[in-house]
């Protein structure tokens, strides 16, 4: 029962009923007292008239009759008196109207009960109207709010009471509105993301497709030597590989941005993750005449998904190889302390322009001085998304007199 009285509405309703009933009882007690006073007055009138008649007949009986009016009579006296009155036709079987004083008091009591009942009914009706009016007003507020939500207004918020079931309902309704608003926002964001993704794919595939159509048209309609045919086929193969790499990376980026992947987070050696990354890119570094170096002083363990972190590191290291030039160097270092773990990937070579730094992680962004025509500008964006999916963040620093450094930071909680 206590949980019901936690509701302020029930508290107010119960207090109102208690006040009404106490007031009604007090009024009835007052009316009963008034009727009792009237009955005493009538009692005095009746016995006063009888006493006056008896004293007129025999004055000596005055001293005997008056004391009898304020004392209890004996059973013998009561029976004797009833017998005398019965001889004159007076008994309790007679109609009340025969007794004028009793009849008047009886009618007065009836009217009092009737009027007090009507007043109590009216008060309870008003109280009931106010009470249910409040509840139906609240229900109408919920109905109106629900209608507005259906019409697309998700920013409304009902006022909340401090406690009670109605307050809980209001909070749940507001929470539902916030959830719906969040879901609609997420759906619109996903819709916008899908439109942008399709636009990006269309834009990035347009050039290699056009090249392949041109190569195919030349192969079909021109008389070419074996060497020329091999050249065009080789170019087509390069464009196909480029399209394959682009599509695969766009799908990876789309999965991450759409939260469509589940990371297999394990507490494992970060050193081994970096070593496997270097092994994957070692041949590429040798071809580019770039030295890969991993500086490690101790084994560092980090909770991460090895394959996805390698995906991010591969893109960052590959970017370093491409911009180091022949004889350049890419080196990786780990900094670990009780607060954070950092992976620093630095490379020699030309620095990134200062105006390019704020945009370097944007999808399909290419620096103004980029000389790599094959670069699409998706690798750094993918690396950033992977790192943020792990709860970390990535930043870049590059100055003409210093190496370019990408720093991945993971805070320890």
TrEMBL record:
<dbReference type="GO" id="GO:0005524">
    <property type="term" value="F:ATP binding"/>
</dbReference>
<dbReference type="Pfam" id="PF00512">
    <property type="entry name" value="HisKA"/>
</dbReference>
<dbReference type="InterPro" id="IPR003661">
    <property type="entry name" value="HisK_dim/P_dom"/>
</dbReference>
<dbReference type="GO" id="GO:0000155">
    <property type="term" value="F:phosphorelay sensor kinase activity"/>
</dbReference>
<dbReference type="Pfam" id="PF02518">
    <property type="entry name" value="HATPase_c"/>
</dbReference>
<feature type="domain" description="Histidine kinase">
    <location>
        <begin position="200"/>
        <end position="413"/>
    </location>
</feature>
<keyword id="KW-0472">Membrane</keyword>
<dbReference type="GO" id="GO:0005886">
    <property type="term" value="C:plasma membrane"/>
</dbReference>
<keyword id="KW-0067">ATP-binding</keyword>
<keyword id="KW-0175">Coiled coil</keyword>
<protein>
    <recommendedName>
        <fullName>histidine kinase</fullName>
        <ecNumber>2.7.13.3</ecNumber>
    </recommendedName>
</protein>
<keyword id="KW-0547">Nucleotide-binding</keyword>
<dbReference type="InterPro" id="IPR005467">
    <property type="entry name" value="His_kinase_dom"/>
</dbReference>
<keyword id="KW-1003">Cell membrane</keyword>
<feature type="coiled-coil region">
    <location>
        <begin position="253"/>
        <end position="298"/>
    </location>
</feature>
<feature type="transmembrane region" description="Helical">
    <location>
        <begin position="109"/>
        <end position="130"/>
    </location>
</feature>
<keyword id="KW-1133">Transmembrane helix</keyword>
<keyword id="KW-0812">Transmembrane</keyword>
<keyword id="KW-0418">Kinase</keyword>
<feature type="domain" description="HAMP">
    <location>
        <begin position="139"/>
        <end position="185"/>
    </location>
</feature>
<dbReference type="InterPro" id="IPR004358">
    <property type="entry name" value="Sig_transdc_His_kin-like_C"/>
</dbReference>
<dbReference type="InterPro" id="IPR050398">
    <property type="entry name" value="HssS/ArlS-like"/>
</dbReference>
<dbReference type="InterPro" id="IPR003660">
    <property type="entry name" value="HAMP_dom"/>
</dbReference>
<feature type="transmembrane region" description="Helical">
    <location>
        <begin position="12"/>
        <end position="32"/>
    </location>
</feature>
<keyword id="KW-0902">Two-component regulatory system</keyword>
<dbReference type="InterPro" id="IPR003594">
    <property type="entry name" value="HATPase_dom"/>
</dbReference>
<keyword id="KW-0597">Phosphoprotein</keyword>
<dbReference type="InterPro" id="IPR036890">
    <property type="entry name" value="HATPase_C_sf"/>
</dbReference>
<keyword id="KW-0808">Transferase</keyword>
<dbReference type="InterPro" id="IPR036097">
    <property type="entry name" value="HisK_dim/P_sf"/>
</dbReference>
